[in-house]
TrEMBL record:
The keyword Lipoprotein applies. Keywords: Lipoprotein, Signal. This is Basic membrane lipoprotein. Residues 49-323 form the ABC transporter substrate-binding protein PnrA-like domain. The lineage of its organism: Bacteria, Pseudomonadati, Thermodesulfobacteriota, Desulfovibrionia, Desulfovibrionales. The keyword Signal applies. InterPro entries: ABC-Purine-Binding, PnrA-like. Coiled coil: none annotated.
């Protein structure tokens, strides 16, 4: 009996030792497996970039805000980003409120995409020095504010070549938003291209004083069609001018995105934006800590930010070849669109032969070139 009791004691002791040994090993294995994720978690969190976008018009309008939102989607597709946007935000007090709300919610970078957001952006930026702000098309900067735009005038010039070749009446209509340098510069580039192809072409401008008002845009286009214009282009956010041209049996040239689907019988091409590369580059800089304020970026066709849509089947092949040859030069960095000699609309030489308008003057352009009918007010 004692012998059996001893045996039971030995067995029990061995079982207890095995149990203690097993209990001692398990935490070591669990600790080894658990440490890497625990060490990586803060690093992964630090890599997340929250990017906010403020739009002046609806994203579904196929226009300016639509093109910016395509760029936002390119950012959102990255594995280290979160994005959000607010659309149809009026310039002024409303935009200031929206921008401030984004900053309060912890966005790392906020893209304010309309010219009239400039002062609200600057005001909010002072309150949130740790937030990066990117303002589109403006000129004011700060330690945490940079501005950016694209050389869309290059695309305007190419579409002007198409318009000059396609007009029969020599009258081209331009439905334009506001008489600011951005818009005036585009009108001038369009006119230069048109008159290279057709020296008798003239560009008639109607101001709407709005970025987005489809009914008003369409009425403006109709007034130009009634005046004999047989090609209508635009600096507006909706395809209304395209639709007006098709209804009148005229040609049209879109803006911001490829608007062929809205007026397939009229649409010659469009001057288009491709914000994706620029926005992706910016958020990568935010992530890497290399982004800087007090900067100005003016991206070109060589950077892939501006382009033209495919030309329609009604455009002759020889015209397409000429346009694509000029595009190839711009992609290669050869930009002489605003090279002299250039006259203003009064016939006065303002850029002499051999001279090129510097970027600073282009950014502040307030006068029309020869061939443009309209005022800059």
């Amino acid at each position: 009996m004692k012998r059996m009791l001893k045996l039971l004691v030995v067995v029990a002791s061995m079982a207890m030792m095995l149990s203690l040994f097993a209990c001692g090993e398990a935490p070591q294995e669990e600790k080894t497996e658990a440490l890497p994720p625990q060490a990586e978690a803060p690093e992964e969190a630090a890599k997340t970039v929250k990017a906010g976008f403020v739009y002046v018009s609806p994203v579904g309008d196929a226009g300016y805000s639509y093109s910016h939102d395509l760029g936002r989607k390119a950012v959102d597709a990255l594995d280290f980003t979160e994005t959000a946007f607010v659309e149809s935000v009026p310039e002024g007090a409303d935009s200031e409120r929206v921008i401030r709300n984004m900053a309060r919610k912890g966005f790392n970078v906020i893209f304010t995409t309309s010219f009239g957001y400039m002062d609200p952006t600057m005001k909010v930026a002072k309150e949130f020095p740790d937030v990066a702000f990117m303002h589109c098309s403006g000129f004011k900067k700060a330690e945490n504010v940079s501005n950016y735009f694209g050389r869309i005038y290059q695309s305007r010039y190419l579409t002007g070549l198409v318009a000059g070749a396609m007009t029969k009446s020599n009258k081209l209509g331009y439905v334009a938003a506001f008489p600011i340098p951005e818009v005036i510069r585009g009108i001038n580039a369009f006119a230069i291209g048109a008159r290279e192809m057709n020296p008798d072409a003239e560009v008639r401008v109607v101001w709407t004083k709005t970025w987005y008002d489809p009914a008003l845009e369409k009425d403006a286009a109709k007034s130009l069609l009634d005046a004999g214009c047989d090609v209508i282009t635009q600096h507006q956010d909706s395809p209304a001018a395209q639709e007006a041209a098709q209804e009148a049996g005229a040609y049209s040239i879109g803006y911001n995105s490829d608007m062929a689907s809205f007026a397939p019988k009229a649409h010659l091409t469009s001057a288009i934006w491709n914000w994706g590369p620029a926005y992706v580059k910016t958020v990568e800089q935010i992530k890497n800590g290399t982004w800087k304020g007090n900067q100005s970026a003016w991206w070109s066709m060589a950077d892939g930010v501006v382009d033209i849509a495919p030309m329609g089947p009604m455009v002759p092949e020889d015209v397409k070849e000429i346009v694509l040859a000029h595009k190839a030069k711009l992609v290669a960095g050869d930009d002489t669109i605003f090279a002299g000699p250039l006259k203003n609309q009064n016939g006065e030489v303002v850029v002499t032969e051999g001279a090129v308008i510097p970027d600073g003057d282009l950014l502040g352009m307030t006068w029309f070139v020869e061939g443009v009918i309209g005022t800059t007010e």
